[in-house]
Structure formats: C-alpha cells, structure tokens
C-alpha cells in the first residue's frame, strides 16, 4: 500500500490498474479555479459542495490531482484510465481528494 500524507492533502487511489498518489497543490487549485471560472477558493469549494459534478469535472479534478502529485499524464491519458467501480469509483476518488484538500479527518 502506498504511503501518502493526508495532512498534506495526499490520497492514494487505484487508476489504470495501479495505485497512484493524488494531491491538489496550490498550482492545481489555481488551474481548477480557472477551469471552473471560480473567482476564488471559496467559490471553488461552493461549486464542489453543490454535488453537481459532470464526468468532465471528475476528469479535470483527477487530472489536477495526479499532476499535483508529480505525475505527467496528459488529460487524454487520464481519460483512458479505469477506476474500480466505474463512475462511482471516479466520484469516490474525487470526493476523497476534495476531503483531503479542504478539510475534515476523512
């Protein structure tokens, strides 16, 4: 099992048949603000809290998390990765990543 530091917002998730680290760094968060047209982090967290995330949103967040953890996958490569549980698996990964990033003891 991969060691990650939850206090730094890191999680481990199986994507594409391998366990990978994900982390939303400040740079990754800035990219997400731009992608979602969010004015600031408060607006971004409100957007996520709405619970209305499309498949494209999940892809964008997972890609940002992988990039933040140092992976160099393209968005297209991430789009081809499979997660256990299909769509629910992607949603679980995003939920866990957001929980690790924005707080809570998840």
Let me know the number of strands: 2
Helix-strand pattern: EEHHHHH
Instruction: Give the helix proportion (percent range).
Output: 40-55%
* Strand arrangement across the biggest beta sheet: 1-2
Strand residue percentage: 5-15%
Mean pLDDT: 92
Largest sheet: 2 strands, antiparallel
Oligomer: single chain
Quickly count the domains. 1
Q: How large is the count of helical segments?
A: 5
How many whole angstroms does the radius of gyration measure? Answer: 13 Å
Q: What's the shape?
A: globular
Class computed from helices, strands and strand pairing: mainly alpha
Q: How far is it from the N-terminal to the C-terminal residue, by CA?
A: 18 Å
Which blocks of ≥5 consecutive residues have pLDDT under 50?
A: none
Organism: Oricola thermophila
InterPro entries: Phage_TAC_11
Protein name: Gene transfer agent family protein
Spell out the key features of this protein:
mainly alpha; 2 strands; 54% helix; globular
Topology:
Blueprint: E1 10-15, E2 18-23, H1 26-36, H2 41-49, H3 55-68, H4 75-80, H5 86-102
Antiparallel strand pairs: 1-2
Helix pairs in contact: 1-2, 1-3, 3-5
Question: Would you kindly provide a written description of the structure presented here, covering whatever features stand out?
Answer:
- The chain has 106 residues and is mainly alpha-helical.
- It has one domain.
- The protein is built from five helices and two strands; from the N terminus they run E-E-H-H-H-H-H.
- It has a two-stranded antiparallel ribbon.
- A hairpin with a 2-residue loop joins strand 1 and strand 2.
- The chain is globular, with a radius of gyration of 13 Å.
- It starts with 9 loop residues before the first strand and ends with a helix.
- The model has no long low-confidence stretch (mean pLDDT 92).
- It comes from Oricola thermophila.
- InterPro entries: Phage_TAC_11 (IPR021791).
- This is Gene transfer agent family protein.
